[in-house]
Protein: ATP-binding cassette domain-containing protein
Organism: Flavobacterium calami
Amino acid sequence: MKKETENTAEVKASKKKAIIEIKDLHKTFGKKNHILKGVNFTVNKGEDLVILGRSGSGKSVTIKCIVGLISPDKGEIYVFDENVLELQKKELNEMRVRIGFLFQSGALYDSMTVRENLAFTLRKHKPDLTSKEVEKEVLEALDNVGLVDAVDKMPSELSGGMRKRIGLARTLILKPEIILYDEPTTGLDTITSREISELILDIKHKQKTTAIIITHDMACAKLTADRIIVLKEGIIHAEGTYEELEKSEDEWVRSFFE
């Protein structure tokens, strides 16, 4: 019995381990556009964190700083216990392979088929794979998003929801430990938005991923979030579960849930 208790404690401790840590993050564009004014938060291993905020509040800037697409003016960013801002280019690229980034548009290459889009990403990062291994990985990634039948289609033949799924398959093909979702349901109808939100949950459970999800879609937030932080005027204004923030005494926070 004692051994079971110790094992349970170990599991709980591992789940609480911060896999992303942001400290005092600042970013200004131009002379006066001060977007981030000291953002602090952590994301625990296995957690899906949703970031809410009005347009221009710094949500996308924050996650782009995490993967080194934008350099902050001040602050610290730790991912996998490494300081992102101190990494050399080679080390940063190695880290990026472990982090999937789903852009708003899906960011597919329009001149390539679905198969070629996924294979291109795989060959870029894993050049030693044989053609047979690449094909196996491509079909497996498409199976994870329920779109194996679309393997030979061009992006122009896909609906908005399908493009999001293919973009996600291309992200998943490298088997990332962290996925950053930038407005995953934007521009989609209610039913398709729910399907994408459910897919995010399914990926978390199947692939054991950790995620940051930026969204304006409160149905998506309710379904996917273990925890929510709300950005306002460049800092974190509120934090809690969906249920806690929905009942907040802060009128501005509650406005997201109306």
Summary: Residues 190-207 form the longest helix (18 residues).
